[in-house]
Amino acid sequence: MSTPSLLGSHAPTLLHAMLRVQDLSRALAFYRDVLGCVELRRIEFATEGRTLVFLGMQDGDAQAMQIELWHEADGPPIAHPERAGHIGIGVRDIEGCVAKLAAAGVAIIQKPAPVRPGGRVIAMILDPDGNEIELLASP
Questions:
Q1: Which of 2, 55, 76, 100 is the most buried (most CB within 10 A)?
Q2: How far is CA 25 from the centre of its chain?
Q3: DSSP structure class, residue 118
Q4: Is 134 a catalytic site residue?
Q5: Which residue out of 39, 68, 72, 134 is catalytically annotated?
Q6: pLDDT at 80 over 80
Q7: Which residue range is the domain that position 109 belongs to?
Q8: How big is the CA angle at 84 (ends 83 and 90), to the nearest 5 degrees?
Q9: Handedness of CA 35, 39, 40, 46 (dihedral sign)
Q10: How far is it, in rounded angstroms, from Cα 137 to Cα 1?
Q11: How far is CA 44 from CA 18, 52, 53, 64, 111, in A?
Q12: Of 76, 111, 128, which residue sits at a domain end?
């Protein structure tokens, strides 16, 4: 049994996770052409030189969890603190998926392996900006 949260009566919903990117075109190509995401909406702040692009998976469900790519035209270099976090994506045939990604030049930082004996198989990759993406074996 869980304890009610402070937001429980406000019907909280996970909406998106934000990632900073240096080169928006390069990031969009990766998330679109490699991971299969689709652009759902874009917000441009011309005076600030900032663009926010919200991505979803191919089914285009605008209600599902999204990734927000945050780009600042004159933003500082992106630094990733050790163990900063990751985004998780479920995939079928994780071995085949990782082999395709490796052949396409995607940085594989952890080959498919169970998290613990008998546990779920995961792999870790990097996007072009060094953001970690965890691939999880799905049925």
A1: 55
A2: 16
A3: T
A4: yes
A5: 134
A6: no
A7: 85-139
A8: 90
A9: positive
A10: 29
A11: 15, 6, 9, 22, 37
A12: 76
Higher per-residue pLDDT: 60 or 50: 50
Let me know the angle formed at the C-alpha of 125 by 52 and 103, rounded to the nearest 5 degrees: 110
- For the four alpha carbons of 79, 80, 82 and 84, in that order, the dihedral sign comes to positive
Average pLDDT value over all residues in the chain: 90
**Backbone phi, psi, residue 82, to 5°:** -55, 135
pLDDT of residue 1: 56
Q: 8 versus 28: which is more confidently predicted?
A: 28
Q: List the structure tokens of 12.
A: 């909280």
Q: For residue 97, what is the domain's CATH number?
A: 3.10.180.10
